[in-house]
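lol ok so funny story. i was supposed to be doing the assay writeup but got distracted and ended up predicting the structure for this chain instead. priorities right. anyway since i did it might as well share w the group, maybe its usefull for someone
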Amino acid sequence: MTTELALLGLLAVLWGASHTFIKIGVETIPPVTFIAGRTLIAGGILLGLIRWRGFAMPRDMVSWRRFMFQACLNSVIPFTLIAAAERSIDAGLATILNATSPIFTFLLTALITRHEPVTLRKLVGVGAGIAGICLIVGTEALGGIGHQLWAQLAVVAATICYAGAAIFGRNFRGLDPMVPAAGSMICGAAILIPLGLVFDRPWTLTPSTASILALFGLSVFSTALAFSIFFRLIHALGSVGTTSQAYLRVPIGVGAVFLGESLGPTAWLGMAFVVVGVAAMTIPARQARLAQ
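and the output, tada:
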């Protein structure tokens, strides 16, 4: 279990840094093309590592349909939404909103799979998390800043997709963690590359060196490595336990102050509510596993 908790912390670092990579990357690379490159590079790296280790990808259609569905939940939709949103909002704010994934994981689990108990502490955590979202997004709604509001709602929608992916990821039990990671990335690239070619015409782009380096950093560390860890933890800690890394990555993502960003007092208060809510929902579950 010590290894799993260390990997949980590493996953928080890798995904916390992803928002900064995205913020830099989409400055000169359109979101769809940027995410197509992310999935293609990550999928290629993982596929190479799988073959180097002597494994093989599944050949049956059932597995690849599952990879395709996982790709939509875990990369195609959320990656693109977040990349598009970060053209309008700060990376730190995107991280805060994205940190609500355990809340949505818990709600989907309680309403659909029902494999984890609904406790008073978890319900309090859900309430605190929702309050945090309202504090972060609500001021923009009241102020009528529609463009930024839609960007924030896009990140929340992406977070709901991540919650569904954490639950659906339990279906890959028995496979080496790199296999579903590679399969979902390859399927994601197969969807996004044609879209990027049609809408972005990438051959006409002149991306900056910083954006290209951000793309490779995001693909190697925050995607290929991160998703290999993610699928391992799904089986070891469960869906809610794995998404608990979201509250650990908040201070990492908010460390995007290196980009010169600043957060208002309402956003900081909302972040506090989100962190308290996520911690209240996930810490008991992790402690219960440690006691087993």
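Confidence is low (pLDDT under 50) at residues 140-146, 285-292. The CA atoms of residues 31 and 84 lie 5 Å apart.
back to the writeup now i swear
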